[in-house]
Amino acid sequence: MKKGIIIFAVFLFWLLLVSAMVSLPPMGSPENPAYSHIVPRYLEEGVEEAGAHNIITGIILNYRGYDTMGEVTVILTALMGVLAVLGRENLLHHTSKVDESTIERSVIVKCVVRLLVPFIILFALYIILHGAESPGGGFQGGAILGASVIALTLTFGFSLTVKKLPLKYRTVFESAGPLGFFISGVIGLFCGLNFLTYIIPSVAPAYQDLIRHLLLLIIEIGIGVGGGTIIASVFLAMEKVGKE
Amino acid sequence: MLRSLDVLLLIFLLVTAIGVVCTKDLLGAAIIFSAYSFTMAIVWQQLGAPDLALTEAAVGAGVTTVLFLIAISRTVRREDE
Amino acid sequence: MEVYSIRPLLAPMISIVCAILIFWRGDNTFLRRSLSISASIIKWIVVFSMLPGSLAGKIYVTQLVPFTPGISILLRVDALGMFFGMVSSTLWVITTIYAIGYMEGEHARKRFFAFFALCVSTTVGIAFAGNMFTLFVFYEMLTVCTYPLVIHEETPEAMKAGRKYLVYTLTGGSFILFATALTFSLSGTVSFSQPGILSINSGVGILAVLFAMFMLGFGVKSAIMPLHGWLPSAMVAPTPVSSLLHAVAVVKAGVFGITRVTYNIFGVSLLKEMASKGINVAYILMWAAMITIICGSLMALMQDNLKKRLAYSTISQLSYIVLGVSLLTPDGAAGGIVHIVNQAFMKITMFFVAGAIYKKTHKKNISEMHGIGHKMPITMATFTVASLGMMGLPPTAGFISKWYLCLGALDAGQIIAVVVLLISSFLNAAYFLPIVYRAYFVKPPDGDVTTDEAHWTLLLPCVICSLYVIALGLFADLPFVPLALVREAVKQFFVL
Amino acid sequence: MNDLTELFNKLFVNFNYIVAATLFVIGLYTVIAKSNLIKKFMGLNIIETSVFLFIVSSGAIVGGKAPIIGEGVSSKTAFVNPIPQALILTGIVVAMSTTAVALSLMIKLYEQCGTLNADKLKELK
Amino acid sequence: MIEFSQHCPVLMTITLIIGGALTPIVSISRKKFSFWWAFFVSLLAFFFCSCAVWRLYTMGPISYWLSGWEPPYGIEVYFDYVSTITFLMTALGILVIVYSKRYILHDISEEKLPTYYTLVLLILGGMVGFSVTGDMFNLYVFLEILSLSGYALIAITEEKLNAMASFKYLVMGSVSSVSVLLGVALLYNVTGTLNMADIALRLQQFGPTTAVYVALVLFIIGFSVKAALFPVHAWLPDAHALAPSPVSALLSGLVIKIGIVGMLRVLYCVYKLGGPVDFTSVTNFMGWLAAVTVLVGAFFAFFQDDIKMIFAYSSISNIGYILMGISLVSFTQPERGYLGMMGGLVHVFNHAIIKSTLFLCAGALIYKTGFRKLSDLRGIGKKMPITCGVLTIAALSIAGIPPTAGFICKWYIILGTIEFGKPIFAVALLLGAMLVFAYYIKIINALFFREPNESITEVDEAPLSMLVPIIILAIGCLVMGIFAYLPLAVIRPAAATMLGLPSTYLPLGG
User: Which of B53, B63, B73 sits opposite A147 (nearest CB)?
Assistant: First the structure.
């Protein structure tokens, strides 16, 4: 009975959504307002203006950089949320399920992980640094970075990771995302420009491009390092188990 | 616009979504959810969004699934508990 | 002629400052007493300093804060406001003396005196309010400030009475708020002016609804039946509270509001115009008042508790005022308005006496008061004077108001009103004289007839008030008496 | 008859949108009807991804390429709309963040109450 | 100064966000230092906000182009008259942080202090960013920042029910965020832009389609959940009552107003009166919803014994007032909605002040006595006269007793309903106000007029760091009521511009 009512309500909602979807302009047509209004400028001048061959990177770091600052703040908030609920891991008081598990991890897994992780980290760095030219960017790389930490923890145990990545450094790295934006954004502010402006007119034109690249790189690295550390920290905080 | 592969992928998406809903075993549901995310990543790749496909594969199918798995390991495995 | 002056603001501010000081340092008995008395006297002087000007037709104005265009917190002392302000500030002095004696040994005196001062402050604010908005602001403040006094005893009975009081008055307040907003919406202003601010163009129906809302709102505090339920239950409060607030400030604020609405919001001509269009709201109000007069008296007859009997008598007497106002004739209005002060002095005397008896003998019921006149002769003498005034016998003040009321009723052609007034006089006699009789002519059960008066702080106010009742009757036509001020007010209302 | 064909046509042209709407309601159903909190949250994730699917689809172009303009790519090539992709990048991160907070809440809830069933939790209260 | 002040809208947002992000770093070695850092950051943000408000009222709205890209291409921060609410947010933020100094150690361990202050700064930053942005997607991002920090702040204590309350809020809040996002997506699909002003312009060009209406419905659903309107209010009482008191003050005072600000932005900045989409039927529906919300909130509050639960339910009722005020609009005659809009907007400010006072006072009582039920707290007024006195002022204020702040809004909303020809709403509002007063009187009775609880001995007045904020707020309650023209002068242009009237519009009584 209850289920029936829910299904009926949800169905009504579906009809509402579908009626909206049907009235939208046909998907994939270049005449769509979504395609003809702002996008042409991005596609035609984006590389010049934003300084990235990958237009998406140009948008997320330059045209809509403020959004991305919000985005990195959201993950920081999420980490703070997890910490608020569960608290940090503490080597003296906590272990992880992995440590407590009696199943001996097989040699093959250990070897493969040990071999692969350096490459994974290298790949992550490539994605972070090469975001302007190819698919990927700060956050994607960061996620892979975080995943490599997770892989290490799952194979070699909780205490190793906590020891290798001390809390002090992680605390600093976690805030790297917003911090990167702050550093890059404030430079423009000091030159009398708007926040997050990367082109500094007072500098010789030859160096303008270089400075912009540098600033964008700071942001990318900030997002990557910050994102990766946060994912690792969230994982550690959730994984820990209180010692009796 | 629509290619048969796309239609197939989209239908598979629906199937996995319903699979997530109907599976009583949470671990199984999490795995199916991972498959769902992966399919989504492929759909996006088909739509010309490799950036997103990469992100979804790393975050949606990777990190999110791991988080689900931890949560399940720390709590319950059966849906009705 | 409008004169800008700080005095209208000063009058309520004195009591507020006094209240704050009492809150701050009121634990010290001497400080508390001297603060209360000196504040009340200073205020009395401030208010009376405006009397000569007011009699000469001057209107003192203080603009407080501009609220928004068209509305401000405005204090404006016209003749009617001056009249009511005078009543409340005079009675504050007297009641303060009484309260000091009465509250000796009670708990939470600091709170009592602080809220007492606040109440008087808001009452004067109501008197001096220059527009409906200001009046409403002070009216609601009065409600809130009275609450701690009503429940002063903190007994379950008192709490229940307090709750009842709040429910009644706040509901009334909501009606007034709504009606004020509607008035503003219809006329674009809420200032009191002669002769009224509304016009017939708004439509008779909506005007009638508006009038009904105002009457329902103010009718609660002026205890028009069937909105009177809270008044008898609120008699659980200490006697100074009952006397000042329930015989003077709160209930009179209600009738004062009715007067303001009738003469300064609607205006005589508009009400007559409405009557000619078929909806005679004043006539309906008159009938409500007449029914309340009779029913209140009848119910008073049935009470044994002295304070309850006084409460029902108040309900009945208040409707004299409403009746006078609703007659829409100059004499009727004068009779009604002057009854505000006359009834105030008569009723406060009675309450003081009831309180003095209770304080001395702990008797509350009339059936226990055999021979009390032998024990407390002066006290009961003042009670007798007040009872005679209530019946409207010359040369007391009560006669003056009844005389004018009857004149006004005859002017308006309402013979029935005259009849009701006469019946009411008989009923008054019927429920007051037995008390007097019992006090003097029935021997006390223990046969003890030695004189044992209450403390002078309790006795003095009774004597002053009863003397005043006689004086008001004897010298009714002198300048500087309330009647002169009422004449000035009526002159303004009827543009004579 | 003609209207029906047209409607069908429209449905088919915007097939991605329809799938997104369907996924949305599947997720919504899970959130409302399922009593297990983790399941509820999987439903929420489905809702979020369905909205992402909708947004990405609305940026697609027939035969469009990924908007990476390197050397040797003629400016005549049709690129897909980059804005939705930029938005969804943010969206995915937000979804993951919400999931992290929600799952940590569930872990704590389980530690405290010993169950993750919404009905049983209500009784505990 | 002029040059500098134009940066202020964005400066205050990033100050709070970056300040929040830096909190864990600066307090690595000394956890307690995080308080001083948060205090400093909030002061700085307040300073920036004051500059922005000063500029707004001298030179008009500020349009700030981030990265220097002109609006439809980049993100625009638009500091208009509605954004003056940020002034309230930053000011209240300072007070809450000062209050937290002593209080929060009562609820959480020292270990979590930096986390707590980070989240407080982030929630403030999220709200400020949300209120000043001129971009639809940016709106969503900040919405998520503030929602996530809100969920976390509720669950920060170790109490048993907090996690559940937080989770309930999280599920409903996430669904609402997603529906806002879907609305944004639909609008983007139709218009091809994300800038609010540009969307409004292009909606005029394209005219309405079903999708535009559905997007409106989705926005309303989404923001209703955030504002806790009647059918979707279920999350609020638990969440607001169980959270630590300073957090309750933030949530009840400000966070639920975010739903209202969102509705204002969407209805009056994006869809616009006089635009192609006639949403009078929607606002009509919202008006009825508001009336029901007022009554439902007031009704349920009546049965509570937990002091914070009462305040939480009264928040629902008060959100109803606000919504009623802002929903009194006519599509063809915008002037008719002016007074109601004024009332609603003024109540956004006043309710924030009043409700934070109430929650902070309740917090002081709980901090000192450890009790939170009225029956346990009886007679505490004699022991903690200042706290209870302030609580009484705030209680009278929220019941709309003149001359306190709550009366002003009541007056305006009633006037608005009458002007608009919907007196039935005024009846609902007055009835709600009566009910509200009934249960606040219950509180006052319990605090002052009942036999003291014997188990409360040796209780004295709350510490200074808690008293100062509540006294400042109480003064606010009185000043906003007595000198009502001050807030009204600030709100007036906001109300006028929301309705598409010139910002100097001033009818009689407005």
Answer: B63
pLDDT band at A129 (very low <50, low <70, confident <90, very high): confident
Interface of E with C (CB under 8 A): 396, 401-403, 407, 410-411, 414-415, 418-419, 423, 426-427, 430-431, 433-434, 437-438, 441, 445, 448-450, 482-485, 488, 506-510
The residues near C259 (Cβ < 8 Å, ≥ 6 apart) are: C80, C321, C325, C333, C336, C337
Which chains pack against A, by 3+ Cβ pairs within 8 A?
B, D, E
d(CA B21, CA E411): 51
Where in chain E are the domains?
A: 304-319+329-510
Task: Enumerate domains of chain D plus CATH numbers.
Answer: 2-61+79-124 (1.10.287.3510)
Chain E nearest-CA residue for D39: E171
Does residue D49 contact residue B40 with C-beta atoms inside 8 Å?
yes
Q: How many angstroms away from the CA of E27 is the closest CA of chain A?
A: 10
Give the nearest partner residue to D104 out of A28, A43, A238, using CB atoms: A238
Q: Please give the ipTM for the structure prediction.
A: 0.91
Domain count, chain C: 1
Low-confidence ranges of chain B (pLDDT < 70): 1-2, 81
Q: How confident is the model at residue A103 (pLDDT cuts 50, 70, 90)?
A: low
The owner of tokens 């000192």 is E368
Domain assignments of chain A as residue spans, ordered by start: 1-29, 64-242
> C410 CA to chain E: closest CA distance, Å?
41
First to last CA, chain C: 16
| A162-169: average pLDDT | 86
- d(CA C388, CA C172) in angstroms, rounded, equals 34
Q: For residue C305, what are the domain limits?
A: 280-496
The answer to whether A143 faces chain B, any CB pair under 8 Å, is: yes
Q: What is the dihedral sign for C-alpha C312, C317, C323, C325? A: negative
pLDDT on residue C496: 66
**Structural domain includes residue C36:** no
Question: Torsions phi, psi of E230, nearest 5?
Answer: -45, -60
Count CA atoms closer than 13 A to E365's CA, side-chain side.
31
E-chain CB neighbours of D84 within 8 Å are: 188
Look at residue C351 and tell me if it is in a domain: yes
Asked whether residue C102 is domain-assigned, the answer is: no
